[in-house]
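tl;dr need the bound structure. longer version: we got a ligand (adenosine monophosphate) that a collaborator sent over and nobodys looked at where it sits. i said id run it. heres the input, straight from their email, havent touched it
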Amino acid sequence: MIQGLMQQQPLMISSIIEFAERWYPDVEVVSRTVEGPIHRCTYKELGKRARRLADSLKSLGISAGDSVGTLAWNGYRHLELYYGVSGSGAVLHTVNPRLFSEQLSYVINHANDKVMFADLTFVPLLEALADQLPNIEHYVIMTDREHMPETTLNSVICYEDLIKSGDPDYQWPVFDENSASSICYTSGTTGNPKGVVYSHRSTLIHTIASSIPNGLNLSGSDSVLLVVPQFHVNSWGVSYAAPMNGCKLVLPGPAMDGSSIHDLLESEKCTLSLAVPTIWMMLTGFLRESGKKLPHMKRVVIGGSAVPEAMIRCFEQEYDVQVIHAWGMTETSPLGTLNFLMPHLQELDYEAQMPIKLTQGKSIFGVDIRIVDDNNNPLAHDGIAFGRLQAKGHWVTSGYLGDEDNKAVGSDGWFDTGDVATINPDGYMMITDRTKDVIKSGGEWISSIEIENLAVGHPAIAEAAVIAIPHPKWDERPLVVAVIADGQEIDKTKLLSHLAESLAKWQIPDDVVFVDELPHGATGKLNKLKLREDFSDYKFPTT
Ligand code: AMP
Protein backbone atom coordinates (compact mmCIF):
# COMPACT_ATOMS: atom_id res chain seq x y z
CA MET A 1 0.00 0.00 0.00
CA ILE A 2 1.19 3.52 -0.76
CA GLN A 3 0.44 5.95 2.07
CA GLY A 4 -1.46 9.16 1.30
CA LEU A 5 0.47 12.35 1.84
CA MET A 6 -2.16 14.40 3.58
CA GLN A 7 -1.86 16.07 6.97
CA GLN A 8 -3.23 14.08 9.84
CA GLN A 9 -5.06 16.14 12.43
CA PRO A 10 -7.16 14.71 15.22
CA LEU A 11 -10.82 15.77 14.89
CA MET A 12 -11.38 18.05 17.88
CA ILE A 13 -14.63 19.68 19.00
CA SER A 14 -12.65 22.82 19.95
CA SER A 15 -11.77 23.27 16.26
CA ILE A 16 -15.42 24.17 15.57
CA ILE A 17 -15.57 27.14 17.90
CA GLU A 18 -12.05 28.14 16.92
CA PHE A 19 -13.21 28.19 13.30
CA ALA A 20 -16.36 30.21 14.04
CA GLU A 21 -14.37 32.64 16.19
CA ARG A 22 -11.91 33.22 13.36
CA TRP A 23 -14.11 33.14 10.27
CA TYR A 24 -17.56 34.14 11.53
CA PRO A 25 -16.49 36.45 14.38
CA ASP A 26 -19.47 38.81 14.11
CA VAL A 27 -22.22 36.22 13.69
CA GLU A 28 -24.54 36.37 16.66
CA VAL A 29 -25.65 33.93 19.32
CA VAL A 30 -28.93 35.24 20.75
CA SER A 31 -30.30 33.77 23.99
CA ARG A 32 -33.45 34.26 26.00
CA THR A 33 -32.04 34.10 29.50
CA VAL A 34 -33.46 32.52 32.62
CA GLU A 35 -33.01 35.90 34.28
CA GLY A 36 -35.34 37.43 31.68
CA PRO A 37 -33.66 39.66 29.10
CA ILE A 38 -32.45 38.66 25.64
CA HIS A 39 -28.66 38.30 25.58
CA ARG A 40 -26.58 38.85 22.45
CA CYS A 41 -22.98 37.94 21.77
CA THR A 42 -20.87 36.98 18.78
CA TYR A 43 -18.93 33.81 18.04
CA LYS A 44 -15.77 35.83 18.71
CA GLU A 45 -16.93 36.71 22.21
CA LEU A 46 -18.33 33.26 22.86
CA GLY A 47 -15.10 31.62 21.70
CA LYS A 48 -13.11 33.72 24.17
CA ARG A 49 -15.48 32.92 27.01
CA ALA A 50 -15.30 29.20 26.18
CA ARG A 51 -11.49 29.45 26.40
CA ARG A 52 -11.73 31.22 29.74
CA LEU A 53 -14.10 28.53 30.97
CA ALA A 54 -11.82 25.70 29.76
CA ASP A 55 -8.88 27.30 31.58
CA SER A 56 -10.85 27.91 34.76
CA LEU A 57 -11.91 24.25 35.04
CA LYS A 58 -8.44 23.52 36.44
CA SER A 59 -9.25 25.62 39.48
CA LEU A 60 -12.20 23.26 40.14
CA GLY A 61 -9.90 20.25 40.05
CA ILE A 62 -11.18 19.10 36.67
CA SER A 63 -8.66 17.44 34.40
CA ALA A 64 -8.85 15.45 31.15
CA GLY A 65 -11.36 12.61 31.32
CA ASP A 66 -13.29 14.00 34.31
CA SER A 67 -17.02 14.29 33.92
CA VAL A 68 -18.77 17.66 34.29
CA GLY A 69 -22.56 17.83 34.53
CA THR A 70 -24.94 20.50 33.31
CA LEU A 71 -28.56 21.12 34.27
CA ALA A 72 -29.47 23.94 31.97
CA TRP A 73 -31.77 25.32 29.29
CA ASN A 74 -30.61 26.36 25.84
CA GLY A 75 -28.45 29.45 26.23
CA TYR A 76 -25.05 30.95 25.53
CA ARG A 77 -23.51 29.72 28.78
CA HIS A 78 -24.62 26.17 28.00
CA LEU A 79 -23.04 26.56 24.56
CA GLU A 80 -19.80 27.73 26.20
CA LEU A 81 -19.88 24.55 28.30
CA TYR A 82 -20.31 22.42 25.17
CA TYR A 83 -16.97 23.78 23.96
CA GLY A 84 -15.13 24.70 27.16
CA VAL A 85 -15.62 21.33 28.86
CA SER A 86 -15.14 18.98 25.88
CA GLY A 87 -12.45 21.21 24.37
CA SER A 88 -10.38 21.02 27.56
CA GLY A 89 -10.40 17.22 27.42
CA ALA A 90 -13.04 16.79 30.13
CA VAL A 91 -16.39 15.12 29.40
CA LEU A 92 -19.65 17.07 29.23
CA HIS A 93 -22.63 15.28 30.74
CA THR A 94 -25.79 17.16 29.81
CA VAL A 95 -28.36 16.02 32.37
CA ASN A 96 -32.01 16.01 31.36
CA PRO A 97 -33.80 17.87 34.18
CA ARG A 98 -37.07 16.20 33.26
CA LEU A 99 -35.89 12.81 34.54
CA PHE A 100 -37.49 11.63 37.78
CA SER A 101 -35.42 12.51 40.85
CA GLU A 102 -34.18 8.92 41.38
CA GLN A 103 -33.09 8.84 37.76
CA LEU A 104 -31.38 12.22 38.14
CA SER A 105 -29.22 11.07 41.04
CA TYR A 106 -28.63 7.76 39.25
CA VAL A 107 -27.25 9.38 36.07
CA ILE A 108 -25.18 12.02 37.90
CA ASN A 109 -23.56 9.34 40.08
CA HIS A 110 -23.24 6.82 37.27
CA ALA A 111 -21.42 9.31 35.05
CA ASN A 112 -19.32 10.27 38.08
CA ASP A 113 -19.86 14.00 37.59
CA LYS A 114 -17.45 16.00 39.76
CA VAL A 115 -18.82 19.47 39.14
CA MET A 116 -22.39 20.46 38.32
CA PHE A 117 -23.17 23.60 36.33
CA ALA A 118 -26.80 24.64 36.78
CA ASP A 119 -29.18 27.34 35.63
CA LEU A 120 -30.97 29.28 38.39
CA THR A 121 -34.14 27.30 37.63
CA PHE A 122 -32.55 24.06 38.79
CA VAL A 123 -31.03 25.21 42.09
CA PRO A 124 -34.05 23.99 44.16
CA LEU A 125 -33.94 20.65 42.35
CA LEU A 126 -30.25 20.23 43.22
CA GLU A 127 -30.84 21.32 46.82
CA ALA A 128 -33.37 18.50 47.17
CA LEU A 129 -30.97 16.02 45.59
CA ALA A 130 -27.61 17.15 46.99
CA ASP A 131 -27.26 14.58 49.77
CA GLN A 132 -27.57 11.83 47.16
CA LEU A 133 -24.76 13.29 45.07
CA PRO A 134 -21.58 12.44 47.04
CA ASN A 135 -19.21 12.93 44.10
CA ILE A 136 -20.14 16.52 43.28
CA GLU A 137 -17.37 18.76 44.61
CA HIS A 138 -18.65 22.13 43.32
CA TYR A 139 -21.91 23.60 42.10
CA VAL A 140 -21.47 26.40 39.57
CA ILE A 141 -24.56 28.56 39.16
CA MET A 142 -24.86 29.78 35.59
CA THR A 143 -25.48 33.44 36.33
CA ASP A 144 -23.72 36.64 37.35
CA ARG A 145 -22.97 37.91 40.86
CA GLU A 146 -26.05 40.11 40.90
CA HIS A 147 -28.40 37.14 40.40
CA MET A 148 -26.70 34.63 42.71
CA PRO A 149 -29.37 32.93 44.82
CA GLU A 150 -29.44 32.09 48.52
CA THR A 151 -28.85 28.36 48.61
CA THR A 152 -28.21 25.46 50.93
CA LEU A 153 -25.85 23.87 48.40
CA ASN A 154 -22.22 23.52 49.47
CA SER A 155 -19.24 24.90 47.58
CA VAL A 156 -21.23 27.18 45.32
CA ILE A 157 -19.49 29.26 42.67
CA CYS A 158 -20.83 31.98 40.39
CA TYR A 159 -20.27 31.18 36.70
CA GLU A 160 -19.24 34.69 35.71
CA ASP A 161 -16.74 34.89 38.60
CA LEU A 162 -15.34 31.50 37.63
CA ILE A 163 -14.68 32.31 33.99
CA LYS A 164 -13.24 35.74 34.82
CA SER A 165 -10.33 33.86 36.37
CA GLY A 166 -9.67 31.94 33.12
CA ASP A 167 -7.28 32.94 30.33
CA PRO A 168 -9.07 34.27 27.18
CA ASP A 169 -6.02 33.20 25.14
CA TYR A 170 -6.07 29.63 26.45
CA GLN A 171 -4.81 27.30 23.71
CA TRP A 172 -7.07 24.32 23.04
CA PRO A 173 -5.20 21.07 23.68
CA VAL A 174 -4.93 18.48 20.91
CA PHE A 175 -5.37 14.85 21.96
CA ASP A 176 -6.71 11.51 20.74
CA GLU A 177 -9.86 12.14 18.71
CA ASN A 178 -11.39 8.96 20.10
CA SER A 179 -11.45 10.44 23.61
CA ALA A 180 -14.89 10.83 25.18
CA SER A 181 -16.32 14.30 24.61
CA SER A 182 -19.80 14.06 26.07
CA ILE A 183 -22.37 11.76 27.62
CA CYS A 184 -26.13 11.70 27.18
CA TYR A 185 -28.40 9.22 28.90
CA THR A 186 -31.34 7.58 27.18
CA SER A 187 -34.73 8.53 28.56
CA GLY A 188 -34.99 5.14 30.30
CA THR A 189 -38.65 4.26 29.98
CA THR A 190 -37.65 0.73 31.04
CA GLY A 191 -35.08 0.35 33.82
CA ASN A 192 -32.32 2.83 34.49
CA PRO A 193 -31.27 5.30 31.81
CA LYS A 194 -28.25 4.13 29.82
CA GLY A 195 -25.19 6.29 29.16
CA VAL A 196 -24.20 6.94 25.55
CA VAL A 197 -20.65 8.26 25.28
CA TYR A 198 -19.74 10.34 22.24
CA SER A 199 -16.18 11.01 21.08
CA HIS A 200 -14.58 14.07 19.50
CA ARG A 201 -14.28 12.07 16.30
CA SER A 202 -17.89 10.84 16.20
CA THR A 203 -19.16 14.34 17.01
CA LEU A 204 -17.07 16.05 14.33
CA ILE A 205 -18.07 13.59 11.62
CA HIS A 206 -21.72 13.77 12.68
CA THR A 207 -21.56 17.57 12.56
CA ILE A 208 -20.12 17.65 9.05
CA ALA A 209 -22.55 15.02 7.77
CA SER A 210 -25.57 16.67 9.36
CA SER A 211 -24.79 19.99 7.66
CA ILE A 212 -24.96 18.79 4.05
CA PRO A 213 -27.93 19.54 1.75
CA ASN A 214 -29.39 16.07 2.30
CA GLY A 215 -28.94 16.66 6.02
CA LEU A 216 -30.01 19.89 7.72
CA ASN A 217 -28.85 21.87 4.66
CA LEU A 218 -27.14 24.55 6.77
CA SER A 219 -25.37 27.63 5.49
CA GLY A 220 -24.16 31.01 6.66
CA SER A 221 -27.47 32.46 5.43
CA ASP A 222 -29.38 30.61 8.11
CA SER A 223 -30.62 31.98 11.39
CA VAL A 224 -31.40 28.86 13.43
CA LEU A 225 -33.79 28.70 16.37
CA LEU A 226 -32.66 25.68 18.37
CA VAL A 227 -35.67 24.58 20.40
CA VAL A 228 -34.40 21.00 20.79
CA PRO A 229 -32.91 21.07 24.30
CA GLN A 230 -29.16 21.22 24.74
CA PHE A 231 -29.79 18.68 27.52
CA HIS A 232 -31.18 16.06 25.14
CA VAL A 233 -29.16 14.15 22.51
CA ASN A 234 -26.60 16.90 21.95
CA SER A 235 -29.36 19.25 20.78
CA TRP A 236 -29.49 17.14 17.61
CA GLY A 237 -25.92 18.24 16.91
CA VAL A 238 -26.94 21.82 16.12
CA SER A 239 -24.88 23.38 18.94
CA TYR A 240 -21.92 22.14 16.88
CA ALA A 241 -23.32 22.45 13.35
CA ALA A 242 -24.45 26.10 13.65
CA PRO A 243 -20.99 27.53 14.47
CA MET A 244 -19.38 25.17 11.93
CA ASN A 245 -21.58 26.66 9.20
CA GLY A 246 -21.50 30.25 10.42
CA CYS A 247 -25.23 30.23 11.16
CA LYS A 248 -26.73 32.73 13.55
CA LEU A 249 -27.86 30.69 16.54
CA VAL A 250 -30.95 31.57 18.58
CA LEU A 251 -31.46 29.83 21.94
CA PRO A 252 -34.90 30.05 23.57
CA GLY A 253 -34.03 29.40 27.24
CA PRO A 254 -36.93 28.05 29.27
CA ALA A 255 -39.75 29.72 27.28
CA MET A 256 -41.11 27.22 24.80
CA ASP A 257 -44.75 28.27 24.53
CA GLY A 258 -46.08 29.22 21.09
CA SER A 259 -46.00 32.95 21.67
CA SER A 260 -42.40 33.06 23.00
CA ILE A 261 -41.16 30.85 20.18
CA HIS A 262 -42.94 33.01 17.61
CA ASP A 263 -41.43 36.18 19.11
CA LEU A 264 -37.91 34.83 18.54
CA LEU A 265 -38.68 33.48 15.06
CA GLU A 266 -39.87 36.97 14.15
CA SER A 267 -37.33 39.20 15.91
CA GLU A 268 -34.31 37.10 14.89
CA LYS A 269 -35.59 36.43 11.36
CA CYS A 270 -35.10 32.70 11.82
CA THR A 271 -34.97 30.66 8.62
CA LEU A 272 -34.81 27.25 10.28
CA SER A 273 -35.95 25.73 13.54
CA LEU A 274 -35.80 22.27 15.07
CA ALA A 275 -38.04 20.62 17.66
CA VAL A 276 -40.29 17.70 18.53
CA PRO A 277 -43.94 17.69 17.36
CA THR A 278 -45.27 18.84 20.77
CA ILE A 279 -43.51 22.19 20.41
CA TRP A 280 -44.86 22.68 16.90
CA MET A 281 -48.34 21.81 18.10
CA MET A 282 -48.08 24.75 20.54
CA LEU A 283 -46.70 27.07 17.86
CA THR A 284 -49.30 26.22 15.22
CA GLY A 285 -52.04 26.57 17.84
CA PHE A 286 -50.71 30.04 18.65
CA LEU A 287 -50.49 31.00 14.96
CA ARG A 288 -54.10 29.97 14.36
CA GLU A 289 -55.37 31.92 17.37
CA SER A 290 -53.30 35.05 16.74
CA GLY A 291 -53.46 35.08 12.95
CA LYS A 292 -49.68 35.63 12.90
CA LYS A 293 -47.48 34.29 10.10
CA LEU A 294 -43.96 32.92 9.61
CA PRO A 295 -42.51 35.27 6.98
CA HIS A 296 -38.82 34.36 7.44
CA MET A 297 -39.03 30.63 8.09
CA LYS A 298 -38.01 28.36 5.25
CA ARG A 299 -37.57 24.96 6.89
CA VAL A 300 -38.63 23.22 10.03
CA VAL A 301 -36.96 20.02 11.19
CA ILE A 302 -39.28 17.73 13.16
CA GLY A 303 -38.24 14.49 14.84
CA GLY A 304 -38.19 12.65 18.13
CA SER A 305 -41.59 11.19 17.35
CA ALA A 306 -43.59 10.81 14.16
CA VAL A 307 -44.85 13.97 12.49
CA PRO A 308 -48.63 13.96 12.12
CA GLU A 309 -49.88 14.54 8.58
CA ALA A 310 -51.93 17.52 9.73
CA MET A 311 -48.71 19.19 10.94
CA ILE A 312 -46.94 18.72 7.61
CA ARG A 313 -49.94 20.18 5.78
CA CYS A 314 -50.20 23.08 8.20
CA PHE A 315 -46.56 24.16 7.84
CA GLU A 316 -46.29 23.55 4.12
CA GLN A 317 -49.69 24.63 2.88
CA GLU A 318 -50.68 27.37 5.33
CA TYR A 319 -47.27 28.89 6.12
CA ASP A 320 -45.10 27.86 3.15
CA VAL A 321 -42.47 26.29 5.41
CA GLN A 322 -40.83 23.07 4.24
CA VAL A 323 -41.04 20.20 6.75
CA ILE A 324 -37.97 18.00 7.11
CA HIS A 325 -38.98 14.88 8.97
CA ALA A 326 -35.99 13.31 10.72
CA TRP A 327 -35.37 10.15 12.71
CA GLY A 328 -32.66 9.42 15.20
CA MET A 329 -31.95 8.55 18.79
CA THR A 330 -29.54 9.21 21.64
CA GLU A 331 -27.57 6.15 20.53
CA THR A 332 -27.17 7.55 16.99
CA SER A 333 -25.88 11.02 18.01
CA PRO A 334 -28.80 11.45 16.85
CA LEU A 335 -29.17 11.86 13.09
CA GLY A 336 -30.01 8.67 11.20
CA THR A 337 -32.45 9.50 8.44
CA LEU A 338 -33.94 12.69 6.98
CA ASN A 339 -36.79 13.14 4.57
CA PHE A 340 -36.02 14.86 1.28
CA LEU A 341 -37.94 14.09 -1.87
CA MET A 342 -35.93 12.63 -4.73
CA PRO A 343 -36.51 14.30 -8.14
CA HIS A 344 -39.02 11.71 -9.43
CA LEU A 345 -41.06 12.23 -6.25
CA GLN A 346 -40.94 16.01 -6.55
CA GLU A 347 -42.76 15.61 -9.87
CA LEU A 348 -45.76 13.99 -8.16
CA ASP A 349 -48.68 16.10 -7.03
CA TYR A 350 -48.83 17.04 -3.34
CA GLU A 351 -51.35 14.35 -2.38
CA ALA A 352 -49.23 11.61 -3.96
CA GLN A 353 -46.14 12.94 -2.17
CA MET A 354 -47.81 12.80 1.24
CA PRO A 355 -47.24 9.07 1.96
CA ILE A 356 -43.51 9.65 1.33
CA LYS A 357 -43.41 12.84 3.40
CA LEU A 358 -44.81 10.85 6.31
CA THR A 359 -41.81 8.49 6.27
CA GLN A 360 -38.72 9.23 8.36
CA GLY A 361 -36.65 9.52 5.17
CA LYS A 362 -33.38 8.17 3.86
CA SER A 363 -30.04 7.45 5.52
CA ILE A 364 -27.44 10.17 5.38
CA PHE A 365 -23.91 9.17 4.44
CA GLY A 366 -22.10 7.78 7.47
CA VAL A 367 -24.94 5.79 8.98
CA ASP A 368 -26.44 2.68 7.41
CA ILE A 369 -29.76 1.11 8.35
CA ARG A 370 -31.45 -2.22 7.75
CA ILE A 371 -34.56 -4.09 8.88
CA VAL A 372 -34.39 -7.69 10.08
CA ASP A 373 -36.76 -10.40 11.27
CA ASP A 374 -36.56 -12.05 14.69
CA ASN A 375 -33.74 -14.32 13.45
CA ASN A 376 -31.70 -11.35 12.26
CA ASN A 377 -32.35 -12.06 8.57
CA PRO A 378 -32.44 -8.86 6.51
CA LEU A 379 -35.90 -8.06 5.12
CA ALA A 380 -36.84 -6.75 1.70
CA HIS A 381 -36.99 -3.02 0.94
CA ASP A 382 -40.49 -3.28 -0.49
CA GLY A 383 -42.27 -0.84 1.79
CA ILE A 384 -44.38 -3.70 3.15
CA ALA A 385 -42.17 -6.05 5.17
CA PHE A 386 -41.58 -4.66 8.61
CA GLY A 387 -39.00 -5.70 11.13
CA ARG A 388 -36.48 -4.57 13.72
CA LEU A 389 -34.59 -1.50 12.62
CA GLN A 390 -30.81 -1.67 13.05
CA ALA A 391 -28.13 0.97 12.47
CA LYS A 392 -24.39 1.00 11.98
CA GLY A 393 -22.02 3.88 11.42
CA HIS A 394 -19.43 6.42 12.54
CA TRP A 395 -21.71 8.00 15.13
CA VAL A 396 -23.70 4.97 16.29
CA THR A 397 -22.99 3.68 19.83
CA SER A 398 -20.79 0.62 20.25
CA GLY A 399 -22.00 0.01 23.83
CA TYR A 400 -23.36 1.76 26.91
CA LEU A 401 -21.28 3.31 29.69
CA GLY A 402 -20.32 0.69 32.27
CA ASP A 403 -22.14 -2.08 30.42
CA GLU A 404 -19.53 -4.79 30.03
CA ASP A 405 -22.00 -7.24 28.49
CA ASN A 406 -22.50 -4.84 25.62
CA LYS A 407 -25.83 -6.26 24.51
CA ALA A 408 -26.61 -3.19 22.44
CA VAL A 409 -24.63 -4.25 19.41
CA GLY A 410 -24.70 -7.68 17.75
CA SER A 411 -21.56 -9.58 16.77
CA ASP A 412 -22.11 -8.34 13.22
CA GLY A 413 -21.78 -4.73 14.42
CA TRP A 414 -25.43 -3.70 13.96
CA PHE A 415 -27.06 -1.74 16.78
CA ASP A 416 -30.66 -2.75 17.48
CA THR A 417 -32.65 0.47 17.73
CA GLY A 418 -35.77 -1.00 19.36
CA ASP A 419 -37.81 0.52 16.52
CA VAL A 420 -39.85 -1.43 14.00
CA ALA A 421 -39.82 -0.12 10.44
CA THR A 422 -40.38 -0.67 6.74
CA ILE A 423 -38.03 0.53 3.98
CA ASN A 424 -39.43 1.17 0.52
CA PRO A 425 -37.66 0.51 -2.80
CA ASP A 426 -36.43 4.15 -2.92
CA GLY A 427 -34.88 3.70 0.55
CA TYR A 428 -37.45 5.71 2.54
CA MET A 429 -37.72 4.29 6.05
CA MET A 430 -40.98 4.38 7.94
CA ILE A 431 -41.14 3.73 11.68
CA THR A 432 -44.19 1.62 12.34
CA ASP A 433 -43.60 1.17 16.06
CA ARG A 434 -41.30 0.59 18.98
CA THR A 435 -40.63 -3.14 19.35
CA LYS A 436 -42.40 -3.09 22.70
CA ASP A 437 -45.38 -1.04 21.51
CA VAL A 438 -46.38 -2.98 18.40
CA ILE A 439 -49.71 -4.80 18.81
CA LYS A 440 -49.49 -8.51 18.02
CA SER A 441 -52.93 -9.59 16.95
CA GLY A 442 -53.55 -13.12 15.63
CA GLY A 443 -49.98 -13.42 14.31
CA GLU A 444 -50.17 -10.04 12.52
CA TRP A 445 -48.51 -6.86 13.72
CA ILE A 446 -50.59 -3.70 14.04
CA SER A 447 -48.74 -0.40 14.14
CA SER A 448 -49.78 1.70 17.12
CA ILE A 449 -48.19 4.78 15.54
CA GLU A 450 -50.22 4.45 12.35
CA ILE A 451 -53.48 4.45 14.31
CA GLU A 452 -52.30 7.33 16.52
CA ASN A 453 -51.50 9.40 13.43
CA LEU A 454 -54.91 8.70 11.96
CA ALA A 455 -56.62 9.57 15.24
CA VAL A 456 -54.88 12.94 15.60
CA GLY A 457 -55.77 13.58 11.96
CA HIS A 458 -59.34 14.07 13.23
CA PRO A 459 -59.85 17.73 14.16
CA ALA A 460 -61.55 16.84 17.45
CA ILE A 461 -58.57 14.84 18.74
CA ALA A 462 -55.69 16.69 20.41
CA GLU A 463 -53.54 13.68 21.23
CA ALA A 464 -53.91 9.91 21.05
CA ALA A 465 -52.06 6.80 22.20
CA VAL A 466 -52.72 3.26 21.10
CA ILE A 467 -51.74 0.38 23.37
CA ALA A 468 -52.06 -3.39 23.27
CA ILE A 469 -54.63 -4.96 25.58
CA PRO A 470 -54.49 -8.74 26.15
CA HIS A 471 -57.23 -10.58 24.28
CA PRO A 472 -58.29 -14.21 24.79
CA LYS A 473 -58.62 -14.99 21.09
CA TRP A 474 -56.19 -12.65 19.30
CA ASP A 475 -53.44 -12.34 21.99
CA GLU A 476 -53.55 -8.56 21.81
CA ARG A 477 -55.93 -5.98 20.39
CA PRO A 478 -55.52 -2.18 20.09
CA LEU A 479 -57.11 0.30 22.48
CA VAL A 480 -57.16 4.03 21.69
CA VAL A 481 -56.69 6.41 24.60
CA ALA A 482 -57.39 9.92 23.37
CA VAL A 483 -57.60 13.53 24.52
CA ILE A 484 -60.37 15.64 22.97
CA ALA A 485 -59.24 19.02 21.60
CA ASP A 486 -60.43 22.16 23.44
CA GLY A 487 -63.94 23.20 22.42
CA GLN A 488 -64.51 20.05 20.32
CA GLU A 489 -66.87 17.13 20.72
CA ILE A 490 -66.54 13.55 19.53
CA ASP A 491 -67.65 10.12 20.70
CA LYS A 492 -66.28 6.61 20.40
CA THR A 493 -68.38 5.63 17.38
CA LYS A 494 -67.42 8.71 15.41
CA LEU A 495 -63.71 8.23 16.09
CA LEU A 496 -63.82 4.54 15.19
CA SER A 497 -65.61 5.21 11.93
CA HIS A 498 -63.00 7.89 11.12
CA LEU A 499 -60.28 5.27 11.70
CA ALA A 500 -62.17 2.64 9.69
CA GLU A 501 -61.87 4.86 6.60
CA SER A 502 -58.12 4.18 6.48
CA LEU A 503 -57.59 0.85 8.25
CA ALA A 504 -58.15 -2.78 7.35
CA LYS A 505 -60.98 -4.32 9.36
CA TRP A 506 -58.66 -6.35 11.62
CA GLN A 507 -56.62 -3.23 12.44
CA ILE A 508 -59.56 -1.20 13.74
CA PRO A 509 -59.18 -0.72 17.50
CA ASP A 510 -61.61 -2.58 19.74
CA ASP A 511 -62.36 0.40 21.94
CA VAL A 512 -61.70 4.08 22.66
CA VAL A 513 -61.27 5.69 26.07
CA PHE A 514 -61.21 9.48 26.39
CA VAL A 515 -58.95 10.99 29.07
CA ASP A 516 -58.03 14.54 30.16
CA GLU A 517 -54.34 14.03 29.54
CA LEU A 518 -51.82 11.39 28.52
CA PRO A 519 -48.62 10.61 30.46
CA HIS A 520 -45.34 11.90 28.97
CA GLY A 521 -41.74 10.96 29.71
CA ALA A 522 -38.68 13.11 30.32
CA THR A 523 -38.27 14.02 26.67
CA GLY A 524 -41.90 14.91 26.10
CA LYS A 525 -42.76 11.64 24.38
CA LEU A 526 -45.79 9.57 25.24
CA ASN A 527 -45.01 7.27 28.15
CA LYS A 528 -46.75 4.13 26.96
CA LEU A 529 -45.24 2.07 29.75
CA LYS A 530 -47.09 4.20 32.30
CA LEU A 531 -50.22 4.12 30.16
CA ARG A 532 -50.10 0.33 29.96
CA GLU A 533 -49.76 0.27 33.77
CA ASP A 534 -52.73 2.65 34.13
CA PHE A 535 -54.81 0.38 31.89
CA SER A 536 -53.54 -2.94 33.29
CA ASP A 537 -57.00 -3.79 34.64
CA TYR A 538 -58.84 -2.60 31.55
CA LYS A 539 -61.08 -5.14 29.74
CA PHE A 540 -62.64 -4.65 26.31
CA PRO A 541 -66.45 -4.35 26.48
CA THR A 542 -66.76 -7.33 24.13
CA THR A 543 -64.38 -9.73 25.91
P1 AMP B 1 -34.38 9.45 22.09
O1 AMP B 1 -33.15 8.63 22.24
O2 AMP B 1 -34.97 9.89 23.39
O3 AMP B 1 -34.15 10.58 21.16
O4 AMP B 1 -35.50 8.54 21.45
C1 AMP B 1 -35.27 7.89 20.23
C2 AMP B 1 -36.53 7.23 19.76
O5 AMP B 1 -37.52 8.21 19.43
C3 AMP B 1 -36.37 6.43 18.50
O6 AMP B 1 -35.83 5.16 18.74
C4 AMP B 1 -37.79 6.38 17.98
O7 AMP B 1 -38.55 5.40 18.64
C5 AMP B 1 -38.32 7.74 18.37
N1 AMP B 1 -38.23 8.64 17.21
C6 AMP B 1 -37.28 9.54 16.95
N2 AMP B 1 -37.56 10.22 15.82
C7 AMP B 1 -38.73 9.72 15.36
C8 AMP B 1 -39.56 10.00 14.22
N3 AMP B 1 -39.26 10.94 13.35
N4 AMP B 1 -40.68 9.27 14.08
C9 AMP B 1 -41.02 8.31 14.97
N5 AMP B 1 -40.29 8.02 16.06
C10 AMP B 1 -39.16 8.71 16.25
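gonna send this back to them w/ a short note. The pocket of adenosine monophosphate is lined by residues 186-187, 233, 303-306, 325-330, 334, 360, 417-419, 431, 434, 523 (CB under 6 Å).
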